[in-house]
Design brief:
The complex is a heterodimer.
Chain A (H helix, E strand, L loop, with lengths): L42 H12 L9 H14 L14 H10 L6 E2 L5 H20 L8 H12 L7 H6 L2 H16 L3 H7 L61
Chain B lengths: L36 E7 L3 H12 L4 E4 L7 H4 L17 E3 L36 H5 L9 H14 L25 H12 L5 E2 L34 H4 L1 H6 L3 E3 L3 E7 L5 E7 L5 E11 L2 H11 L21 E4 L2 E5 L14 E3 L15 E6 L3 H12 L3 H9 L4 E8 L8 E8 L5 E6 L4 H20 L4 E5 L2 E5 L25 E3 L14 H18 L2 H4 L29
Helix pairs in contact in B: 1-12, 4-12, 5-11
The chains are: A mainly alpha, B alpha/beta.
Chain lengths: 256, 578
């Protein structure tokens, strides 16, 4: 079956080309676990965060096929191939729940259909692009082809699905999709561990405010070099094209 | 897993309603009956409504505040968590369009007692004297119907009531000092101080910010946990929920939560008689009042007026001028992000850490009118990831990589003045909300001066970020705050309310929120909205009963009443552990 081999390729060490992981915790703060601090959090915060970790909601809005397609898409928008099976962070259930409950951020762009419709339209357009370019379903494509299609949305240059893009600007759909993935992934304590974010600190407080010092219960950074898998094109930062609100690197960094 | 040695922290005892870690709502709240007529009916208990209801209650009026959202219990309802804090924001549907559509919701709109002060970063600079005469001075925008000098005593009062922590000497605008000392500075504050200092720019460190630096009465001082805009569970950050509403309730006011007002009713003689609202179960009620004050902020206030159109006011209540909904403003709020080789950890300490107003005033050499401020921003992971998507087009492995460097990034914000324009406006759409009330449609576009200002300002913040030592600097275009859309002025043909917030058209209908601001300066509007509310209260109190029975307008300046501050304002020593 398509889309069930479970992998887009793992990131690797640049020198040895040895794959990284799968790890229980990627990132540069290997010893740090925010959840270990949960008894120092207030009761309500602990309840909300533990519920998030322990109870990913069921799929109620998307059909099984849509769910599988979105699962494949999200595995490119926030790839987790360096995480082991027990430590992958659910994303699709949270998008599904948002749409099922029909909640949003308090606004809709005048040129956008309602979010539920926008998602269905977007998924349809992605299938149309896959069919147009490769004559196969999106989930059956090679990872590099899948990444390529998503990059075309990112670039605002999709190669099919024009009927959909007439009803909905591609950059708005892309922004909503990536934002929803971000809202799910970076809401998870495992993602906080990965990036070295201290997490909740009430009532205990943060005490070391200066010079990037860790709290006694936080960890120091231990960096490692890694490269994204060769089957991916997403490890590039490219400003989105926008008529007046362009953003450009002001000064180049010496090394990545 | 480690545990606190003396047991876990719990402040949930019995039924007590918590407002921060130590403050409780102690007095039982007075409740008006279904058919009672109140003196002042306040729609929306946020920055403006919170201060106004407190003062009117102290002065002995019968006041009722209807609030669309919940009456927060900070221990039971709030969390130290980005994704878990959505309920603090106005998440009912609005339509946003124009050439530069504003993002709403968590960006600028609160719902619940305290309104947006619950999730503001609490930067509390005053407006400059020049902000009140923008047209006279620079030939753009419009002058205010009052001067800085008229508002100054109320700035001073509010700075003590919140209170505001800040430097002993604040050099810009009308130079002044703060009675409460500045906060220790975190990673991003250091970045702004370093960048400004290297460029020879003056900088204000550790404030002005409405966060306690030392404990006061039942409010503990800041613990630097960084979740200011997710609601301050500590009770250190000022919000009218904890600064003014408890005092209002002690003095007999009722604050009724989960009441969504759909219509203001006009009776005979062009006077309003009350409002219709929906309770949390969707039941419709009519509330009688001798006078109504709208404090629902720059989108909901005009929406309510437009939705209250009636035979006498076909274009919307109090809209004979056609300006209701027009001249909506947001400030340019570009976020400039810099990567540093060293660790910053910008999640620690309040996001409101330091600012500079060196570029606030018009400088003819720059080729545009008015100016901007530069302030610290401390996005938590979800907000930061979204900024990186927008600023760098990050997704996929690139997003994962950049997020692994989260602790190396610092964020500074541009806060730039956008001028009022009639085409930037709030209208009502055909679509309706969960109560069947037509939703707001917001249209926003930048104009020539705005674009030049943003281009210059953005580059200046990037220069400061580079001077601070950032190796790479990127930026995201965005907008902050909302004001205007029911502006005040002397001319009833071009404005909605007079300088005390009374609508030109209807003698017992007032507006007391950010929507009355004619221009907005480059200062965060919260303190000014609260100062205007305290001034409006002094005016209403001076008018006594005449507002309820007469259409006569007395425009005399009321005396400044310094005896109406909440009880904690004038020295109450250390917090009590109860």
């Amino acid at each position: 079956m398509c889309g069930e081999d479970g992998g887009n390729g793992r990131p690797y060490e640049p020198g040895s080309r040895k794959p990284i992981g799968p790890l229980s915790q990627p990132g540069y703060y290997a010893a740090f676990r925010t959840l270990d601090q949960q008894r120092f959090w207030d009761a309500k915060t602990r309840e909300v965060i533990l519920d998030r970790v322990q109870n990913a909601p069921p799929i109620r809005f998307f059909t099984p096929d849509e769910g599988k397609l979105l699962e494949t898409i999200c595995a490119h928008i926030i790839p987790q191939d360096d995480r082991d099976g027990a430590h992958k962070i659910p994303i699709v259930p949270w998008i599904d729940t948002r749409l099922y409950k029909d909640v949003h951020d308090g606004y809709r762009f005048a040129d956008m259909p309602p979010d539920r419709e926008a998602f269905r339209l977007g998924l349809r357009a992605i299938e149309e692009i896959a069919d147009q370019l490769h004559q196969r379903a999106f989930i059956c494509l090679d990872p590099i082809q899948q990444d390529g299609i998503l990059k075309s949305l990112h670039d605002g240059k999709p190669q099919a699905g024009y009927k959909v893009w007439e009803r909905m600007p591609v950059h708005r759909f892309w922004t909503m999709l990536v934002q929803d993935c971000i809202e799910a992934y970076y809401a998870h304590p495992w993602a906080w561990d990965e990036i070295g974010f201290g997490g909740p600190a009430y009532p205990r407080a943060y005490m070391r405010l200066d010079n990037g010092l860790p709290e006694p219960w936080e960890s120091n950074e231990r960096r490692y070099e890694w490269k994204a898998p060769d089957t991916s094109v997403s490890d590039l930062y490219e400003p989105k094209p926008s008529p007046i609100e362009h953003s450009a690197p002001h000064r180049k960094r010496g090394s990545a | 897993m480690k545990s606190p040695i003396f047991g876990e922290f719990s402040k949930l005892r019995g039924d007590s309603h918590m407002l921060g870690a130590m403050q409780r709502l102690e007095t039982p709240m007075f409740r008006y009956g279904e058919n009672d007529e109140v003196d002042y009916l306040i729609i929306g208990v946020g920055a403006g409504g919170g201060v106004l209801i407190q003062r009117l209650a102290r002065a002995g009026f019968r006041v009722l505040g209807l609030e669309a959202g919940p009456f927060w219990d900070t221990e039971r309802d709030w969390v130290s968590d980005e994704a878990g804090s959505h309920r603090l924001y106005w998440e009912d549907l609005r339509i946003t369009g124009g050439e530069n559509p504003l993002t709403l919701g968590s960006n600028n709109s609160g719902k619940g007692v305290g309104g947006s002060t619950v999730h503001w970063a609490a930067f509390t600079p005053r407006f400059h004297p020049s902000d009140f005469r923008v047209y006279s001075q620079d030939g753009v925008g419009v002058d205010w119907p009052l001067s800085y000098e008229e508002l100054k005593p109320y700035y001073e009062l509010m700075e003590l009531e919140l209170p505001v922590s800040g430097p002993a000497y604040f050099p810009w605008g009308d130079p002044h000092g703060y009675a409460f000392g500045p906060h220790p500075v975190g990673g991003i504050g250091n970045v702004l101080i370093r960048g400004c200092t290297r460029l020879g720019l003056r900088v204000s460190a550790g404030g002005p910010v409405g966060i306690l630096q030392g404990s006061r009465a039942d409010r503990p001082h800041c613990i630097y946990r960084g979740f200011c805009i997710q609601g301050c569970k500590v009770g250190a950050k000022a919000s009218t929920l904890i600064t003014h509403v408890p005092d209002a309730i002690t003095h007999g006011a009722e604050v009724r939560s989960h009441c969504m007002v759909s219509r203001v009713h006009l009776g005979n003689n062009r006077r309003v008689t009350g409002v219709t609202y929906f309770d949390r179960d969707g039941r419709e009620h009519f509330q009688k009042a001798k006078a109504v004050v709208l404090c629902s902020y720059a989108i909901e206030t005009p929406r309510l007026l437009l939705n209250s159109a009636c035979p006498d006011f076909k274009r919307g209540l109090a809209n004979s001028s056609g300006t209701v909904g027009r001249y909506l403003m947001a400030q340019a709020g570009n976020v400039i992000l810099g990567y540093f080789d060293e660790l910053i950890r910008m999640y620690k300490a309040p996001p409101a850490g330091a600012l500079t107003e060196e570029f606030y005033e018009t400088d003819p050499r720059r080729g545009f009118a008015r100016g901007f401020a530069i302030q610290t921003v401390g996005p938590l992971p979800i907000a930061f990831a979204k900024q990186m998507m927008s600023a760098q087009g990050a997704w996929g492995w690139g997003l994962r990589r950049i997020m692994m460097d989260y602790n190396h990034w610092a964020a500074l914000g541009l806060l730039g003045e956008i001028l009022p324009h009639p085409a930037n406006r709030v209208e009502v759409a055909e679509e309706t909300d969960q109560f069947g009330i037509p939703v707001a449609k917001v249209t926003f576009s930048l104009h020539d001066n705005d674009k030049k200002l943003i281009e210059f300002g953005k580059n200046k913040v990037m220069e400061v970020m580079s001077a601070a030592g950032a190796n790479k600097v990127v930026q995201e275009a965005r907008y902050a705050h909302l004001v205007g859309a029911a502006r005040m002025g002397e001319d009833p043909a071009t404005s909605v309310v007079d300088k005390y917030g009374r609508t030109h058209d209807i003698a017992n209908l007032f507006i007391c929120d950010g929507s009355i601001l004619p221009t907005q300066g480059s200062a965060n509007p919260g303190l000014t909205i609260q100062a205007l509310a305290a001034r409006a209260a002094d005016y209403l109190i001076s008018q006594g009963e005449s507002v309820f029975i007469s259409d006569k307008r007395n425009m005399e300046r009321p005396p400044v009443r310094r005896n109406l501050s909440p009880s904690a304002t004038w020295g109450h020593g250390a917090p009590r552990l109860k």
